[in-house]
Design brief:
Strand order of the largest sheet: 1-2-5
Shape: flat
Number of strands: 5
Helix content: 25-40%
CATH topology: rbstp2171
Largest sheet: 3 strands, antiparallel
Structural class: alpha+beta
Order of helices and strands: EEHEEHEHHH
Length: 128
């Protein structure tokens, strides 16, 4: 019996976003899925930021966050690209309003599989 080969797509996922500047002009950006190297860099940079624990299912979960300083930019600096395909510098991301940073961070978490799916499912079931 022949088995079908496992097939993978190496194209990184991308989500277009538009940010409006102070003059009302729109600028196009892209949030891209991270490469394996970049996700490891992100995780390594942030490992001292959190305390971890095992839940009742034996999964590692974040118990507490020691520092929020630079949390959003630590991910966005690796996956937010401008119209020329260049990563947006931290100094620019730091100037974005908090709500914009937060929404971009949530999109970046989602595209990179960094959201806690169990937590999201629990919140959805509580809302019903």
């Amino acid at each position: 019996m022949e088995t079908e080969p496992v097939r993978f797509n190496l194209r990184l996922k991308q989500i277009p976003v538009v940010l409006e500047d102070d003059n009302g002009q729109d600028h196009s950006f892209t949030i891209r899925e991270l490469s394996g190297h970049d996700i490891e860099s992100f995780l390594e940079e942030n490992r001292s930021r959190v305390d971890l624990e095992l839940d009742d299912k034996g999964k590692t979960r974040v118990k507490s966050i020691k520092s929020y300083k630079g949390l959003h930019t630590s991910l966005l600096k690796l996956c937010l690209y401008d119209e020329q395909g260049v990563r947006v510098p931290v100094k620019d991301i730091d100037r974005y309003p908090h709500e914009v940073q937060k929404k971009l961070y949530e999109i970046a978490q989602d595209i990179n599989g960094l959201k806690d799916k169990d937590k999201d499912e629990d919140e959805e079931s509580e809302g019903n």
